[in-house]
């Protein structure tokens, strides 16, 4: 976790690497419990950014998830995706990089070694109260050797003091 003190707002950035779909249920429960504890310790007025490899697919928003997901996500939601969506709802977060349309090559954050399979596992979350301040968001990874490892989450944010 990194805390940045700004002139207008303070920003807290939390980087995550979530358990894979094949991980033990207990490990997944521990991950989300510990992450919730960190989020709860963050001042509610801070701009909170939780970004990383969530090892899941959220898929695009449906009727029940429009308030936390956008229309521009790859794949079909799986169990880990349900966990992520439930976490965002419970903590009043929004998955920003599913709200902006980008070419598929900018959405893909994982490719199999043979290049046949690809998916979107990197997601960037912010508190819902700041969602309208995010003007663009996409998660990117860089291939290092045989695995995806370096995360670079560019997000364009416009924040101003509220009168």
UniProtKB/TrEMBL annotation:
<dbReference type="InterPro" id="IPR027124">
    <property type="entry name" value="Swc5/CFDP1/2"/>
</dbReference>
<protein>
    <submittedName>
        <fullName>Craniofacial development protein 2</fullName>
    </submittedName>
</protein>
<dbReference type="InterPro" id="IPR036691">
    <property type="entry name" value="Endo/exonu/phosph_ase_sf"/>
</dbReference>
């Amino acid at each position: 976790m990194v805390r940045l003190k700004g002139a207008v707002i303070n920003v807290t950035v939390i980087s995550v690497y979530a358990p894979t779909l094949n991980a033990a249920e207990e490990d997944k429960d521990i991950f989300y419990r510990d992450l919730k504890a960190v989020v709860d310790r963050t001042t509610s007025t801070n701009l909170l950014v939780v970004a990383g490899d969530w090892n899941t697919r959220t898929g695009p928003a449906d009727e029940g998830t429009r308030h936390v997901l956008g229309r521009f996500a790859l794949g079909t939601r799986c169990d880990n995706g349900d966990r992520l969506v439930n976490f965002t709802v419970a903590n009043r977060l929004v998955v920003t990089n599913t709200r902006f349309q980008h070419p598929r090559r900018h959405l893909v954050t994982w490719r199999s070694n043979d290049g046949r399979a690809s998916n979107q596992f990197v997601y960037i979350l912010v508190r819902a109260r700041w969602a309208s301040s995010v003007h663009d968001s996409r998660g990117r990874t860089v291939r290092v050797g045989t695995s995806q490892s370096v995360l670079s989450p560019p997000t364009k944010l416009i924040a101003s003091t509220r009168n």
